[in-house]
Design a protein that fits this description.
The chain is mainly beta. It has 1 helix and 12 strands. Strands 1, 2, 3, 4, 5, 6, 7, 8, 9, 10, 11 and 12 form a 12-stranded mixed beta sheet that branches.
Length: 201
């Protein structure tokens, strides 16, 4: 094995280790709760268990406002996400979120979600919409399509760009955060409910 090859192999291994460490460091976790207090660069939430959790906010932290909406606001070619329960399709929806044009593409696709065992979050464009009781909806996204039945009492919210001033005590939040090198949590994305709305994420 030549010295040049050894150097190249070491550099490749070092790069792989660095990338792996960076990915592990940036792994996202989700937290839900209500705002206890917020400052310019810090936030504390009260979780459903009653415990509190402190997180950092930095210039890259994105804030989204979540307002109440209804099933009538879902239109052909809308971009929405649907929380679905475990089971075969069509899945029963437990929450629906509509997105403003600037936020289309958020969490596109279908993935396991941590709201309940077997739950999924599926986001995409409305490919088929059949109003009735329940409403029937097909979402299309890169690589697939999923179908849902949405009961009339399903919570529906609208997500749009927000600001830190909306992080008021008592507001419901869903936070996508990552752990920093020192073990502290930094919020990457915060969805904050307004006027009693609860983020459907």
């Amino acid at each position: 094995m030549t010295r040049t090859f050894k150097r190249s192999l070491f550099a490749a291994l070092l790069t792989a280790v660095t990338v792996t460490a960076a990915l592990a460091e940036q792994a996202m976790v989700r937290f839900r709760g209500t705002v206890a207090w917020a400052e310019s660069d810090r936030l504390e939430i009260r979780r459903p268990s009653g415990s509190t959790l402190a997180l950092r906010m930095d210039p890259k932290t994105r804030i989204y406002a979540v307002n109440g909406s209804d099933l009538r606001s879902i239109k052909p070619e809308s971009y929405v996400s649907v929380l679905g329960v475990a089971g075969s399709e069509p899945r029963r929806a437990t929450a629906v979120t509509l997105y403003s044009p600037s936020e289309r593409g958020f969490e596109a696709g279908s993935q396991p979600w941590d709201t309940a065992q077997g739950a999924t979050l599926t986001a995409g464009w409305v490919a088929d919409l059949r109003r009735g009781s329940p409403l029937k909806l097909a979402l299309s996204y890169e690589g697939g399509q999923s179908t849902f039945e949405i009961p009339g009492n399903t919570p529906v919210t609208q997500l749009s760009p927000g600001e830190r001033a909306q992080l008021q005590p008592g507001a419901a939040v869903t936070i996508f955060a990552h752990s920093d090198a020192d073990g502290a949590l930094t919020a990457g994305t915060i969805a904050v409910g307004r006027q009693g709305a609860v983020p459907g994420l």
